[in-house]
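[Meeting: bench + compute handoff]

Bench side (C.D.) handed over the final construct sequence. Compute side (W.E.) agreed to return the predicted structure before the next meeting so the bench team could plan truncations. Sequence as handed over:
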Amino acid sequence: MSREIVDLRQYRQPIQTFLPTALEGFSRCHSAVQVSCAALFVFPYDSAATICFDTESSSDTFVAKWAPKGDQYYGEDEYGRFKNNPPDFEYVNFSVLTFETFPKLYDGPDTLSFVDSDGKITNVDRVKEGDEGINRAMFPSLCRFVRDIDSWSSLSRAKVFRAGVVMRDSDCITFWRVPD
């Protein structure tokens, strides 16, 4: 099969338009909710991403239940433990962003070339590297696009508020505290 080039830079603007709109929409619909965590949850094989929101009480209840089973079930940073799996968040898939020009990976070529946000090219052999190869090629650019968002203040936020990017069924996951 031929090699397909995926220029991730073309997704910066859609993500940076989608997120502020979704944050404002969530604030309108749930103005009394204090959000402790928001994550862009990315589905490369579905050419889509969603925004998910969690609350401190939902996170604390989840962590209390799952912590005895091991630290793979939650995230932890200097501010404490927190739920880090968007499908378990209190508000899952609040809004969806579809990447219309993203290749259809189920039927796509075995080899893809990803151009990251700095113009660096990463080649991925789907047969050898699997889904995680695609996730690793996309993840740094998506994180950069989300970190550049400055509209988090439109949310009613808990004292500790984290934002993150999570690739579906992947080890590519990160969260960071967004300052007040």
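W.E. noted at the follow-up: The two ends are 49 Å apart (CA to CA). C.D. will use this when planning the next construct.
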